[in-house]
Design goal:
The structure holds 2 protein chains of 2 kinds. Chain A has 2 domains: 4-222, 3-Layer(aba) Sandwich (Rossmann fold), CATH 3.40.50.300; 226-290, Alpha-Beta Plaits, CATH 3.30.70. Helix content of chain A is 35%, strand content 28%. Chain A is α/β, with parallel strands linked by helices. Chain A is built from 11 helices and 15 strands. In chain A, helix 4 (113-120) crosses helix 5 (136-148). Chain A has a 6-stranded mixed beta sheet with strand order 7-8-9-4-10-11, with helices on both faces. In chain A, strands 1, 2, 3, 5 and 6 form a 5-stranded antiparallel beta sheet that branches. A 4-stranded antiparallel beta sheet of chain A has the order 13-14-12-15, covered by helices on one side. By secondary structure, chain B is mostly helical. Chain B has 10 helices and no strands. Classes of the chains: A alpha/beta, B mainly alpha. The A-B interface holds A 15-17, 52-54, 73-74, 77-78, 80, 82, 84-93, 97, 100-102, 104-107, 130, 146 and B 3-4, 6-7, 10-11, 13-15, 76, 80-91, 242, 245-246, 249. The structure holds adenosine-5'-triphosphate and magnesium ion. Magnesium ion (MG) is lined by residues 44-45, 85, 158 of chain A.
Chain lengths: 307, 252
């Protein structure tokens, strides 16, 4: 097995003339959380369905645990837990009855596993409520319970926080984090919510219109973001000269008569302030500014941004 | 596959389709009772009455009923969106289908038992003559046998429509027609090779005029239906509307 748990080679899916996923190459490393980020219709669900063999690729290949998915389903799939799109359960049964059916089909009969899975997602065991009477968030929790019930090594979760309330989101986030850190599971998670992915993922793949635009670690991505110190002073030109002489730097930009952007954020701002004042320049404001991930996302997807 | 069939019974809990089966069994027995009132002075012994129930059941009720129940049980995995949970276990669609068909076979037996129970109740309430304990057991065996044979006869329809999302109601209509034609087939000497009526010989159904059964033909035709069904299951796959759209585009 290589270093990647999940890997695709030029994975492509066409529906008629429409290309939903185009030459996708993603690489999910062992023991890490990989966030697949994209807007509605970007191709996240289609990609995940192909990873799980639910949809046949038009071309390209999926490799999981180093095995090609096609032909190795019986070897690969039992080691994966998944949640694809909306939760699918039998409406005439309770949560416990539903999980029992899937456990029987999987052939697991470890004592207490259903109770454990339900407890993890904060749902009551042996509740009388039928699935059809569940709220959206409860359904989503049950789907997560189903995904983790058989203790898989890999989790593939398509928008798992859909429909959860803020506290639910925080809960799910922390237990996904725990599954990864404590239990060493590898997790592929998709979302159209940038802030969610940036809070949770170690590695990020950005997909737009079926194309993977970027794939890197969250750290690298954050470092790419432009950071600068914004000075508002009585004379921007003069201030630029003073700073330039003091630190031998030209890495700054004069926006107008009063605004100065210093792009080298490693310089000591306090010392700059003192020097400017000593040279008779009044300082009105100083800010540390940062382009957000959102700005970055807008930039690479061509302007429209994301929810 | 038995494991899958077992879970199918758990999935039926609080499921109204089961009651459709019970209601149709009651219907067929009551229908036969009213026809008995209308008929000329024939004496309705247990054998005569139960034979009429069996006849009405296979020609009017059971083929459509069992196709409907099977269709529901298969289609619900798509409607409830549970199919993805099963396919990723992984249980291939054809295995799931086979498990479901075994379970429906069990339901065919249960429905026969219900048909039998209603028959006996109506028989006793009507104070028809000719009761014997052995005769009663024979009625049960014949009803179970006939339901299973009719089930085998409609299996290819169930398997064909079961693979295609949203098409099972067409199968129900076809099954009804298929059963209805059975009356005419047996009237024109085709009863031995018409799949729906082939079971009559095997349960040695005796109507007023003694029919000439060819048990060998009966067995061969039903075996053939079974083999065709098994082959269809072997190559069964889930054909979703998306896949259909896909092939349409390719054909153009
Ligand atoms: N079965 C299908 N038949 C035809 N087109 C499809 C099918 N499934 C998906 N598509 C198309 O593929 C594209 C990608 O869809 P997909 O569901 O993968 O997006 P997504 O990233 O999961 O979006 P969302 O955030 O809304 O869930 C969409 O344009 C969609 O219309
Ligand atoms: Mg989606």
């Amino acid at each position: 097995m290589g270093e990647f748990i999940i890997e695709t080679h030029n994975l492509t899916k066409r529906y008629g003339n429409q290309v939903s996923v185009s030459d996708l190459n993603i690489h999910v490393k062992k023991g890490r959380i990989y966030g697949l980020l994209g807007r509605n219709g970007a191709g996240k669900t289609t990609t995940m369905r192909m990873l799980l063999g639910l949809t046949a690729p038009t071309s390209g290949e999926v490799k999981i645990f180093g095995y090609p998915m096609q032909g190795n389903e019986r070897k690969v799939l039992p080691r994966i837990g998944c949640l694809i799109e909306s939760p699918g359960f039998y409406p005439n049964l309770t949560a416990t009855e539903n999980l029992k059916i899937f456990a029987q089909l999987r052939g697991i009969n470890k004592p207490g596993y259903i109770k454990g899975a339900l407890e993890l997602v904060n749902l009551p065991y042996r509740d009388k409520k039928l699935f059809s009477e569940y709220s959206l968030g409860m359904k989503q929790r049950l789907a997560i319970a189903l995904a983790i019930m058989h203790e898989p090594e890999v989790l593939i979760l398509d928008e798992p926080i859909n429909g959860l309330d803020p506290i639910g989101i925080a809960e799910v986030r922390s237990f996904i984090r725990k599954l990864c850190d404590a239990a060493g599971k590898t997790i592929l998670i998709s979302s159209h919510i940038l802030s969610e992915i940036s809070l949770l993922a170690d590695d990020i793949g950005i997909i737009d219109r079926g194309i993977l635009l970027e794939e890197e670690s969250l750290k690298e991505l954050e470092e790419k973001n432009a950071k600068f110190v914004h000075f508002i002073v009585s004379d921007a030109k003069k201030a630029a000269q003073i700073i330039g002489n003091l630190f031998q730097t030209r890495n700054m930009q004069i926006a107008d008569n009063y605004s100065l952007y210093l792009h080298d954020t490693s310089l000591p701002v306090a010392k700059i302030n003192r020097t400017l004042m000593e040279n008779g320049i009044d300082i009105k404001e100083v800010h540390l500014c940062e382009d957000t991930l959102e700005d970055y996302f807008k930039k690479i997807t061509g302007g429209e941004g994301i929810a | 596959m038995l494991k899958i069939a077992k879970t199918e019974f758990h999935k039926l809990k609080r499921y109204s389709v089961v009651w459709i089966g019970v209601a149709t069994m009651l219907t067929v027995v009551l229908l036969t009772r009213f026809m008995a009132t209308a008929s000329d002075g024939a004496v309705h012994t247990l054998e005569y009455f139960s034979n009429n129930v069996i006849w009405n059941n296979f020609s009017l009720i059971f083929p459509a009923t069992i196709t409907l129940i099977a269709g529901y049980i298969i289609e619900r995995e798509r409607v409830d969106d549970t199919l993805k949970n099963i396919l990723t276990i992984p249980i291939p669609f054809r295995k799931l289908l086979a498990g479901k068909l075994i379970a429906v076979g069990g339901l065919a037996i249960i429905l026969a038992a219900i048909e039998f129970a209603f028959t006996m109740i109506v028989f006793f309430i009507s104070r028809f003559p000719g009761f014997s304990f052995a005769g009663m057991l024979l009625v049960l065996v014949k009803m179970i046998g006939m339901n299973l044979f009719v089930y085998v006869a409609v299996l290819p329809i169930i398997i064909f429509t079961g693979q295609r999302a949203g098409s099972f109601m067409a199968g129900v209509g076809f099954s009804f027609f298929y059963g209805f034609v059975g009356t005419f087939a047996s009237g024109h000497g085709l009863g031995n090779i018409y799949p729906i009526t082939a079971g009559l010989g095997l349960i040695s159904y005796q109507s007023g005029e003694t029919a000439a059964y060819n048990i060998f033909f009966n067995a061969v035709i039903l075996l053939l239906m079974f083999v065709i069904s098994s082959a269809m299951i072997l190559f069964a796959e889930n054909k979703t509307p998306a896949a259909k759209a896909n092939t349409k585009v390719k054909k153009r």
